[in-house]
Write a structure and sequence with these properties.
It contains five helices and no strands. The chain is an all-alpha fold.
Amino acid sequence: MGKRKFTAEFKAKLVLEVISGERELGEIALEHQINPNQLRTWKSAFLEKAPQVFEESKAAKEAALRADEAAAEKAEMLKTIGQLTLERDFLMKQAHEKNKVQLRIVNSPAKKFLEGQMKSKKGYSKQSGTQKAFRQRWSDYLDDIKLKENTEQRSLEHVVRE
């Protein structure tokens, strides 16, 4: 005859009967044809491991708490990524527009003309009235661009602060 195997539920049921004290350990062992020493071993193992039942629930709660914290952190990170993406897109647009203005200035025929005038003459004392007027208009144009850049920079700083 082979060795009998008992399920965990069956062992727990018998141990709880023994612990309840309604019947003697020997009676329960005899009824189920189990050696009383085997029943005592199950009882001691049951009582030894009983605190782990509560520790596992504590561990499960801690794991759930960690998962909630991780989810909240992930949500915060995604929010930050969204904000940074919007700021980057805004800054890229501003930089693109600024580069367009700078390219217009660099490639401007007026600037090339003015540079040619500056190279051909040692000083500006002999400039004609037209040349002086042109220099003044060019200077005003550059001042307008700088003013526009400063205004854009202030609006950018306002957006970034929000």
